[in-house]
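Fold it.
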Amino acid sequence: MPEVLLSARNLTKRFGGLAAVHDVSLDLWRGAIHAVIGPNGAGKSTLTNLLSGDLPPTTGSIHLREAEVTGRSPERISRAGLGRSYQKTNIFLPFTVWENVRLAAQSRAQHPLRWLRRATSFKATNEQAERAIELAGLAERRNAVAGTISHGEQRQLEIAMTLATAPQVLLLDEPLAGMGTSEAERMVELLQRLKQAHAIMLVEHDMDAVFALAEQLTVMVNGQVIASGTPEQVRGDAGVQAAYLGEEEL
């Protein structure tokens, strides 16, 4: 049986009388990509924010590696093994690729009693940063200033920063947005590598990438799940075609 690393049950988030997410359940497995798709305003980003702790759910539960994390802060959920990227790239533009990733790794190796030592002198932190840079495919760009690298490389850098925190679950919010063909192909290859050791939830509008990558799909409309299953099952669902995928002629 596949190992479930994150499980959400009956998640609902209300803002006044509006249910941005209503009664959503899903499981994320190690070694698999679970894509969440739907039109704008479907509730995909709100769902991601609930899972990462950026928003507390109104009702429902979230378990990360069997421990309940419902309502915990993003910092505590991150330390429990969850990493996420955002729609808008979130990196330190004046710093090099190496400096960005080392800072992320440093957040997992606090040394409060050794504050007079240079942060760059900690071997374990440096090694964790190097592994993340290598895994993200940025080894040759480690000394480049983040503000000077391409958009696709910046998205890779954000994922490298996430990997430096040693997560087991990755929530990736539109990692292919704004990319050209070659950059998108590199990102697809990266995600294929990452899923071997992680459980990944992918929110993405690129349907070609979604159907190439995902083992499981959840389709949301107006905050609710209208279909969930394998890509083949979702592709053949008449309700999905009418609500969303038919617009893409899939």
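The two ends are 31 Å apart (CA to CA).
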